[in-house]
């Protein structure tokens, strides 16, 4: 017997939190009866439907994609723009990106049909570290970078301390390459942090997600995660540590 919201999340319908809201909204039935209690448990024999659609148990799948710039981190787009899903061939499962990268940001993004797994990795308290390489306008001083390390006060609150490394500077062009690692996932966070200290981002790439890298991949290429990698990510998320 498992909690109803966990069964819905594992089927890839929604994250566990969204699954709970679906239950509270009366959109879930078990054996034909509407269920609105979050503590409800079901067995594999029970018929679970969400908004009238039967939940089919899917085998969980996990992919790592090197997202190019100019691609949406979404399942679809009403304007017909390219999304991360377009780079994964038809596999018979409804997959979705874990979190998002901005339209103009390239780099490592994960996709899955495992809603519970996605929810764990996206929650800021779990602290999975993401490493970005930013090309910025201007050459930040050591004191400027210290501000990023200590956390920046943005309109949605102060950011957690970041790991920051100065990689290189080009005084002729007036640009610098900065490496920054964070474990939060606020909207456009890296860009906003650099904006706050006066060095707008010209180009941004996510190079690492926990222990995962883009090694061996070109933009637009992907690979499945190994069972060992999935297991390690779950351990990393549950421990709330970073690698």
Tell me what you see in this structure:
With 243 residues, this protein is α+β, with helices and mostly antiparallel strands. The chain is built from six helices and 17 strands. Helix 1 (4-10) packs across helix 2 (16-24). It is elongated, with a radius of gyration of 20 Å. It starts with a strand and ends with a helix. This is Pseudouridine synthase. Its EC number is 5.4.99.-.
Q: What fraction of residues sit in β-strands?
A: 25-35%
Report, as a whole number of angstroms, the end-to-end distance: 34 Å
Radius of gyration: 20 Å
Largest sheet: 9 strands, mixed
Low-confidence stretches: none
Structural class: alpha+beta
Mass-distribution shape: elongated
Helical proportion? 10-25%
The tally of strands reads 17
Please state the average pLDDT score: 90
Q: State the order of secondary-structure elements, H for helix, E for strand.
A: EHHEEEEEEEEHEHEEEEHEEEH
Task: Please work out how many helical segments DSSP would assign.
Answer: 6
GO molecular function, one term: rRNA pseudouridine synthase activity
Family: Belongs to the pseudouridine synthase RsuA family.
Protein name: Pseudouridine synthase
InterPro entries: PsdUridine_s_RsuA/RluB/E/F_cat, PsdUridine_synth_cat_dom_sf, PsdUridine_synth_RsuA/RluA, PsdUridine_synth_RsuA/RluB/E/F, PsdUridine_synth_RsuA/RluB_CS, RsuA_PseudoU_synthase, S4_RNA-bd, S4_RNA-bd_sf
